[in-house]
Amino acid sequence: MSNYKRTADWLSACGKEPNMENVSVQIGCHIEEFVEFIKSLRIDSEGYSILMQRTASDLEWFANKLKSKDQQVYIPIHMRVDALDALCDMEVTGNGVAYLSGFSKEAADEAVLASNEAKLVDGKPVILPGGKIGKPEGWKAPNLRGFA
Fold first, then answer.
1. H/E/C letters for each residue in 66-120?
2. How is 18-84 classified by DSSP, letter by letter?
3. Distance of CA 100 to the CA centre of its chain
4. Would you say 27 and 66 are in contact if contact means Cβ atoms under 8 Å apart?
5. From first to last of its 148 residues, what are the pLDDT tens digits of the chain?
6. Is the pTM of this model over 0.70?
7. 86: exposed, middle or buried (Cβ count in 10 Å: 0-12, 13-18, 19+)
8. Quick one: pLDDT at residue 35?
9. What is the C-alpha radius of gyration for the chain, rounded to an integer number of angstroms?
10. Which pLDDT value is given to residue 55?
11. Among 56, 115, 118, 147, who pairs with 38 as Cys (CB 3.0-4.6 Å)?
């Protein structure tokens, strides 16, 4: 089963159906992960290092606004093809970075997806106050050390 299908099935099991509010929150989650990637980078230029820190901080603030539903974004109908193209390109370029960095991306994907699926108890999510998907007792984050 594809990563896309496993993710879609997991979101559906968590009660996350396609609508503007859920899309906006998921975009916040997507930005949050990009910020985590930016924070993992280093550069030998103080000016650019400050720029990366400032960019990460601004994006993190915006992602939190979306995730907390304080702000909403949407994909206008006339921009749907462009948005889909960008999402596909981000997956391709991300896989390219993983390949060129020597990461075992397929194995890491499997570990991350299995970890997300382990958040379901009898096929249902643990929902925290505010609607965030929680982690059941005994849940463990994926250990990606062997894949990096």
1. HHCCCCCCCCCHHHHHHHHHHHHHHHHHHHHHHHHCCCCHHHHHHHHHHHHHCCE
2. SSHHHHHHHHHHHHHHHHHHHHH---S-HHHHHHHHHHHHHHHHHHHHHHTTSS-----GGGHHHHH
3. 21
4. yes
5. 999 999 999 999 999 999 999 999 999 999 999 999 999 999 999 999 999 999 999 999 999 999 999 999 999 999 999 999 999 999 999 999 999 999 999 999 999 999 999 999 999 998 888 777 889 999 999 999 999 9
6. yes
7. exposed
8. 98
9. 17
10. 97
11. 56
What is the number of alpha carbons within 13 Å of residue 42 lying toward its C-beta? Answer: 1
CA angle 22, 26, 29 (to 5 degrees): 145
In three-state secondary structure terms, 6 is helix
Question: Are 85 and 57 in contact, with CB atoms under 8 Å apart?
Answer: no
Residue type, 3: N
**Which helix (H) or strand (E) covers residue 5, if one does?**
helix 3-13
